[in-house]
């Protein structure tokens, strides 16, 4: 190993130390196969037990107080991890730059508005909903609505993708950018579609149905599964998003190693060659788009329910950008990288910057109302630029991605060749 | 045309194929057939319309007039992936591998139309899917070994030496299960030894895998040794066709293309 490090140019020496750690870790892992499932299992257990060791208990002073990861933040972070994992399929695997991912998040939330609230109050349709009283409107079971949100988003993804996925690179990015802007506008102006109120316009949809298991299942589980989630007890919300997140990770992993996953990467690498090798371009891209959309829809539905209000203004372009930044900073195409990136950025976004600002504010001589959160987007921008300069492959890159950035001379820029 | 097995005698027929780009006639009413089981070469000087013609044969371009029939199916204007599914595979003049995929993955991608996969089955990973994947991997390793790349399965395509990249392109094309393999200037950039071993490899392909081969070349030496038939294009027109010997002595060919080579 030392041999190898010595033959590298000096500026990469640091990195090769890290990669030699990684190599020895890999070797260790090969010899101890239980690590393959042991480590993920430990992480899952840690994540599920966070309310007991992070929110309260021995480590609460670091996590809850110091880092500010409270119930709300935890929920938001999990939502963004899900969004980032969904976008990872589109951007990380298939290489389709999507700047309008928020559209699916919004559509998922509005699907809950349509099928799980009093928005259509003249209707009276109920299916296994867990509301205490029989409310006017359409109220389907929350779990059915989540699946519907996925289906609606997949359908929308295919509908939007059909004409646009023929475009390449920059053009696709611009069209998706437009799409991300149009969808919230449609919701904003959707209160009078030929006299029909589809979205309640700027007033948004409130009083949304909450997840729950109903009296029968709750009783059968001895009260562990709540009848209906409340805004006082936040743990079930967190566990639910975590479970949805696990499904997302699972699907991400399985698809990555499938025929479809290979086709996505092939299309990203070289469309012409991929199609000559029998890969149907449109179908392959549409699948990536639709699967990404499904996870956006899932996340939107539970987010809407948790916030208990869906407004066109909640789904701004900034969300698309921030989710994209998570994917890039974490390491496109690598699930663990994307999760780490999403946790880091969403923590900074929701609490981290405030907490850092508080810390700086408490230093004697610094003004009390020093607010670092005001410079949020400046900081994210700087972070992105720094990442691109010093670690373009992301925090935890996939081995493929790493190889991509360790290219031969043929693809080096003039600057690289000269130094 | 069909014999008793229902298979056509000619695996590919191009009838009066014409391609115009604006005012330029790139391919001018060319008739062309590839008999099943043969090695046929298409030659011509640079700019003769070889690659345009090749792209028409593979369905990438739709001809302005005329049509191409592969194994009894008209394929003009058909999307490339469907043509591949019918049993036609190609390599590229300037190597177009999936550079950031391993050699094995490159080969697996080409099996796309031969394996079922399926989104749901992949997510659940049914036993049938597992068997299918393992089968595909074994077959891919076999193909890599057959193409002279044993033990290189896990190397990234871009890290392979040039000659091996060419071999990987062929292995990848073979993985799509072709009856007809089209090689676009496969020996470009190879040294004489590499060229010789590649020529042997092509002969082995036909002998062991029953694959019909169309070779596009401008290196005459490659073509003359292994071809059953040679077709010569010049300025988009077919100027000669026949056994290598005949073509070699055809005056129009010598004039258009072999001129300097024949006299030296």
Can you tag this structure with a few keywords?
heterodimer; A: mainly alpha; ABC transporter involved in vitamin B12 uptake, BtuC; 3-stranded mixed sheet; two-stranded antiparallel sheet; 19 helices; 66% helix; disordered N terminus; disordered C terminus; B: 264 residues; alpha/beta
Structure description:
The complex is a heterodimer of chains A (419) and B (264). Chain A is globular, with a radius of gyration of 23 Å. Chain A has one domain (67-418): ABC transporter involved in vitamin B12 uptake, BtuC, CATH 1.10.3470. Chain A has 419 residues and is mainly alpha-helical. In chain A, the strands form 2 sheets. In chain A, strands 1-3-2 form a 3-stranded mixed β-sheet. In chain A, strands 4-5 form a two-stranded antiparallel ribbon. In chain A, helix 6 packs parallel to helix 11. The model of chain A is unreliable at 1-13 and 408-419 (pLDDT under 50). Chain A contains 19 helices and 5 strands. Chain B is α/β, with parallel strands linked by helices and 264 residues long. Chain B has 2 domains: 10-87 and 178-263, Rossmann fold, CATH 3.40.50; 100-162, no CATH class. Helices cover 41% and strands 24% of the residues of chain B. Chain B has helices at 50-57, 80-86, 103-110, 119-124, 127-146, 162-175, 192-209, 220-226, 244-249, 251-263; strands at residues 10-21, 24-35, 39-43, 65-70, 73-74, 88-90, 180-184, 212-217, 229-234, 237-242. A 6-stranded mixed β-sheet of chain B has the order 6-7-8-3-9-10, with helices on both faces. In chain B, strands 2-1-4-5 form a 4-stranded antiparallel β-sheet, with helices on one face. In chain B, helix 3 crosses helix 5, helix 3 (103-110) packs parallel to helix 6 (162-175) and helix 5 packs across helix 6. The longest helix of chain B has 20 residues, at 127-146. Chain B starts with 9 loop residues before the first strand and ends with a helix. Residues 1-5 of chain B have low confidence and may be disordered. Chain A binds chain B through residues 250-251, 254-255, 258-263, 265-266, 269-270, 272-281, 287, 291, 400-401, 403-404, 407-408, and chain B through 58, 60, 79-82, 84-85, 89-90, 92, 96-101, 105, 108-115, 117-119, 122-125, 133, 156, 158-159, 172-173, 175-176.
